[in-house]
Amino acid sequence: MLPRLVKRVIIGSPIRSEQAGHALLGKRLALPIFASDALSSVAYAVQEIMLVLTLAGTAFLYLTPWIALAVIVLMTTVVLSYRQLVRAYPTGGGDYEVATKNIGRAAGVVVASALMVDYVMTVAVSISSGVDNILSAIPSLNPRRVELALAFVIILAAVNLRGIREAGIAFAAPTYLFATGIYIMVITGLIRVAVGDAPVAESARYGVHPEAGYSGALGFLALAFFALRAFASGCTALTGVEAIANGVPAFRPPKPRNAQITLALMGTMAVTMLAGLTAMALIAKVHITDPTANSCRLIGVADCHSTPQRTVVAQVSAAVFGGHHAIGFFYVQATTALILVLAANTAFNGFPMLASVLARDSNLPAQLKNRGDRLAYSNGIVMLAIVAGVLIFLYHANVTELIQLYILGVFTSFTLGQTGMVRHWNRALRTERDPVERRRIFRSRMINGFGASLSAVVLVIVIATKFTKGAYLVIIAMPILYLTMRAIHRHYARVAEELTVDDERLTLPARNHAVVLVSKLHKPTQRALAYARATRPDTLTALTVSVDEDDTRKLLADWEAHDLPVRLTVLESPYREIVRPVISYVRQVRADRPRDVVTVFIPEYVVGKWWQQLLHNQSALRLKTRLLFQPGVMVTSVPWQMEAVSHEDIEARPGG
Q1: Which pLDDT does position 12 carry in this prediction?
Q2: Which domains, ranges and CATH numbers included, belong to the chain?
Q3: With the C-alpha atoms ordered 426, 429, 435, 440, is the resulting torsion angle positive or negative?
Q4: What is the pTM of this model?
């Protein structure tokens, strides 16, 4: 009783399936939900560019505006490309669906593995960066860095378990307050420049010790590699752009149009904020090395070992608004820290939706496609929180280390997704004859083609410049995820093949049934019904619980098509529960016949390995546990041993 009460306090009361429409989002709520990651990336993208450039001291900071401009061009291209994708594929599969349908299932699984890594890193990097900004305002909390980050992960997971709309309402204000704060800061700074009172950062008077290997003059190739590395770090500004394409089903109708408008708003805001913050950082002469470390690479800092550095946003806001005690400084720091933490909410929406699509296609465990009490994909939310929390703990919430694992997955999905779109438009041109529509397709293909080419170039740059800095871990993780998903898909395919109903006549075994529980019409169900008929009970009921209208309609149609001699009874379950309706039905049968015994037969199929068992629904186990405690009720399992398991074992043996 207590766990159920705690669950209701944290998550809230369950929502009926037919109320799913209440969770659809308008543009004003969709922007903070799906774009908070892309907008918040501005807060650390400029910083990451400058961190790389100051490896050689301050000599190459003049490259900052040019690298920022390249990032802006890339972001504009990607946003335009995704507008085409949203229009062509509004079902929410995003790059995964595009790659699967236009390149092949293997390419789709590669994209899926890349996006899953990216979503996990989004949570880890965003929350760690948010903690950095909190520590810039309150340095005394630095020893509690990891604990703060993990607490934020738990809070975000709990809020998202309450439902996507509820999370949007909770997080909408911080996103808009952050954008307002950045715009006010930039405009105020530019006004000060115009009147001859340019802001000066606290670090402007300090030089920077170059790191070993960067102290001398760099040759052309070394300088080019150096600049490309800074560009690759700045490309973190593009994280989260794909979230809107993956979340189109969550928009209100017309879904594709509203998603396109939200994409345009997000792109415009991100580009202007990135340009403004870059300009102010250069005007204020910000010098930064590593906000998570001490200030000893800065020349002239007294007691550098105990003096932490402030982030770029913190230094610019202090310079513009007049110091670390100004109201404007605390406003910008508070909203920046909040939006960076809440940017992880983009992943808490995107990851569960992507996982549900992958589960629907049998690439991930089927449990991930089930909605929870509040119509959120609860299992995906919990999985994301656990994995991200482990990463934060292992890397001590250090943004500089975590960010090296970032964006590789983003540009892998960008490249394959846009390549798939080019093939989509090529196929459309072969059948389209309307001149106006053909011109639109040509224009869309050109945008997606340019986006694919540019993304591919950036992907190569990211791999080349970040491989030894930690990106190799992502390159290892993605194939592992790919192989895991292929193995899961192969298992489900073999199970489905073996369970497919054929035209064999039902044989009558020597066992009695009173109630046969049915989830779908397959061989285990056939066997259970055969036993039921052989026992010749006074009443025989085939019982199913309707948790999904489409699945129930299909089951009824299959039942009629096979002309089974047992009537199928359907129990409605508006809250998607299976156990409670069955228990209520059995209790009613007992109440009507108090002197009789009710025998419940549960058809099950048995797999050979523990990890395979995890891939299948555990409803039968929960039902047996509850039914065993009902007086006058007998429970019998009707097992179906999977032959596919033994085949897999034989194939896995050497020489098998």
Answers
A1: 53
A2: 2-490 (1.20.1740.10), 500-652 (3.40.50)
A3: negative
A4: 0.69
